[in-house]
Design brief:
Number of helices: 16
Radius of gyration: 28 Å
Number of domains: 3
CATH superfamily of the largest domain: Histidine kinase-like ATPase, C-terminal domain
CATH topology of the largest domain: Heat Shock Protein 90
Oligomer: single chain
Strand order of the largest sheet: 5-4-3-6-2-1-7-8
Length: 487
Amino acid sequence: MKFEIIEPDPGALIESLRSFGYSLETAIADLVDNSITAGAKTIEIEFNWAGPESWITILDDGSGIDSNRLNDVMRPGSTNPLDDRDPDDLGRFGLGLKTASFSQARSLTVLTRTELGPAACRRWDLDHVGRTRQWQLLMGPRPESEERLAKLDDVTTGTLVLWENIDRVVDGQVGDWGSRHFYAAVGRVESHLAAVFHRFLGSKLQIRLNGNAIEPWDPFCTDHDATQLLPEGRLPYGGDLVRVQPYVLPHHSRFEDKAAHQHAGGIKGWNAQQGFYLYRSDRLILSGGWIIGGFKPEEHYKLARISIDIDQTMDADWALDVRKSRARPPAGLVDDLIRVAKTTRSRASEVYRHRGTKLSKLAGIKVLAPTWTARKQDGAYRYSINRKHPLVIQAEKDDVDRKTSVRALIDLIERTLPVERIAYDAYRDGESIGNPQSETISGDLLDAARAFIDKLVAGGTPLADAKAALLAVEPFSSYPDIVEAMQ
């Protein structure tokens, strides 16, 4: 077979590697991936403003890189994405360190130390590669940069990455305006890392940005009492299982203040943050958005958020890109995800429509009293009947002697709730699970509703307000026309 070897021009190719579409936030997140894979417990990120000479460092206390491997690590495309990898490896293409760094800086220096020997240093200088037209990986830092690398002495083992000539970050800005522009980026980076690594931050990992610890941002408000967990799904795919957990977040009236509500909304705001959240080995890849056809972000669905968990063996199936910021679900899962999305959006719409009524002063009811509550405890989800539901309270008050029986019945229902059967029917058989509701309310429930309204009216509450209060209680919130017709 005849052939010719055509080698790419180093200067042209290395400039092209700057154009993978990284933002500053996604670029730094890619480097944090490497630190986590190296077993780091602490990561220090520093932004240092000095006009055109500004620089950024990322220091971790991980295992470091052996000097014999450092050249390979610095090689673009150092890992074949088809190779088997450790389950905890957050990389894929062997490009992240280089392309992420080149996207922001023209000079990349890596200084690293392991337990086996002294520190080793290698440096890519894009201008040098362009001048020499050779892939010359430089050994050692720039003489004027040695002080910037001194922080590696603070760790026994670890790696320090130094970005200099950060033209894409400084972007020609100078003076006070440039400084403000530069440090404004710190806030964006903090918000991004708080979301992407929220499952790591805490006991497993600390990330400090300019000396300040980054607090995790939980997209699902799992610590909020009003967050609703729908049944978890385990979707079979390719001999493995994809975990899907739908959440309906609280109505804005359930947050303690405007700041808490805004924080829960996320970087992009409530409307844009609705949808799917894709996790790969606990690292957030997609943060909101309806990744299946026919679904668009709409105001009344903004409380719907759904987590999807995959491992790195599914990268190709999900068409994961180099930046780990885009993905597409495999065709074999689309129908299941559509079903989950419809169920979650429907529930979110119901909460959005009925939790906004100002009812907190009526009969002690806070906006929408759910029948069921859910919490994650000891790695498992626990579902409980809301003891503060007005009908539960009323049943206990109607007959003190029956109070023990009511509580025993509730305990029986909770302990025998067929959670696994519900999940199986919903996600394995492809059938949708509906609530046992129809267009009419049963006679017993209707009598309870009338008694509820009569009690409020007898206490001086106007009939219209009493009806509004009833609409804040499940399951009556699903029957506004029937409630409105009550006299």
